[in-house]
Amino acid sequence: MRKMIVFNNVTLDGYYTGLDGDMGWAHKFDPEWLEFTNENAKGGGVLAFGRKTYDMMAGYWPTPMAVKNMPAVAEAMNKHPKLVFSRSMNEAKWNNTRLIKGDLVTEASKIKSEPGDDIVILGSGNLISQLAQAKLIDEYQIALTPVVVGKGKSMFEGVDKTNLKLTKSRAFGNGTVVLWYHPA
Fold this sequence. Notes:
Structural class: alpha/beta
Helix content: 25-40%
Shape: globular
Number of strands: 10
Strand content: 25-35%
Radius of gyration: 16 Å
Order of helices and strands: EEHEHHHEEHEHEEEE
């Protein structure tokens, strides 16, 4: 069975994005963080998104600017197979993307039970919230960024109390700490 993994940048006050969708605070360009990001991009897996995050990613990673700014990540983002969960989209044009239009929990459960690489959800707070409520998330990789935005969107909106077990951590010189958790 495939694992479903979340990788998200989160502010110190618990938001994956500001109320206006701003994520500028998550973009760190120091050498240590870039090396980590490049290594992460080399990993396998299927990338998964909700519609809003998919639109944002598909609008950036295939561009010459992305290739210039972060060539290793751009190559991986464009190469990896992708899933987009959306009832409102009619087609997904970014290469290697499969559009999933059915009931989220039913479809995600079915995909998890298929053979294949693990599924990594990036961004997509609404998607994460629904899958967490359905107990379908196997691992959370949280990049805790030392910034407070005051108001924003939580990827755990509507999720009942869930105990997590810290399995690994790594601190970076820029103040970010990546925390790996499994449901307890």
